[in-house]
Automatic annotation (TrEMBL):
Transmembrane segments: none annotated. The lineage of its organism: Bacteria, Bacillati, Actinomycetota, Actinomycetes, Micrococcales. Belongs to the CapA family. SMART domains: PGA_cap (SM00854). Pfam families: PGA_cap. It comes from Paeniglutamicibacter gangotriensis. This is CapA family protein. CDD domains: MPP_CapA (cd07381). Residues 1-240 form the Capsule synthesis protein CapA domain. PANTHER family: PGA BIOSYNTHESIS PROTEIN CAPA (PTHR33393:SF13), POLYGLUTAMINE SYNTHESIS ACCESSORY PROTEIN RV0574C-RELATED (PTHR33393).
Amino acid sequence: MAGDILLHPALWEQAEKDGDGKLDFEPILAGIAPYLAQSDLALCNLETPVAAAKGPFSGYPMFIVPPQIIPALKEVGYDGCTTASNHSMDAGVPGIKRTLDALDAAGLVSTGSYRSKAEAETPLLTEVGNAKISVIAGTYSLNGVKEDAPWRVDDIDKDSMIDRAKVARAAGADIVMAAIHDGAEYTNTPTDSQLVLYRALADSGEFDFIYSHHTHSVLPIEKRNGTWIVYGLGNSVAKHATKTVLNKEGLTVKMQFVRTGDSWAPGELVWAPHIMKPTPLRWCALPAADDPCTTKGQDAASLKRTTGTVNAMNAKDSGAKMWTLADQ
């Protein structure tokens, strides 16, 4: 699982440079490809709707971003994306339809926003090996934009999420994960409401893994009653105007599931830290294998901060490990 794909104008300007006038996002994303290649199901959170191929494009506060990002996500190894976020309705219903059509065309599964009520009522089920996996997505807000229908974008109401998980189980899901868009931006601490909701979902027995995005910063990982909770993956790629190093950092998490008889249970969780390289803009793994992502000192400080944050709720003691390609 990887965090937010949040395209600010600087990223499509970089993509245009990389593509010699055409928009090519693959070089920005390429660093994550070896990590995604080691997963059976690789998911991102596509936070914003896409525009038509030639735009117009816009950034904060109402994002409508280049659709060329979607085939690039497929090319680097993603299998799908969640689409429930506070920006889901930035381009209205046409933006949702255009985004989902583009994901379909690229062969990427999705859940979280929908073109029809029937689509919203049908749980995502994707076969991975011998397991059927479902993802229950939701967002805390739509930034005040009104939906035309209550089913258009999933929310994070506890009872609704549990009910949707039960529907997914009844439809044949062996593994159910929650993908939650929630939290306080630019902080390394989960909110009280996050703790209450995520732990309630873990305690419900309906979810095998819970992870979150939106804060644009890394948050702790916790194991509760056998269920791993990732409170904040941070960004995968973004370029905020807000000047804090926290929004340049993120995690890629690999969650393994173990089959015992006819059932599946959570197994090992590993996490890979990264930071955005500033020039040119690139996803960059930490610790950097060759040249530093930023400077040696900044890379070291970022790695130390990320490690401390991840383990602040006893993740290491519960068995979570840092993941580097050399380990595989």
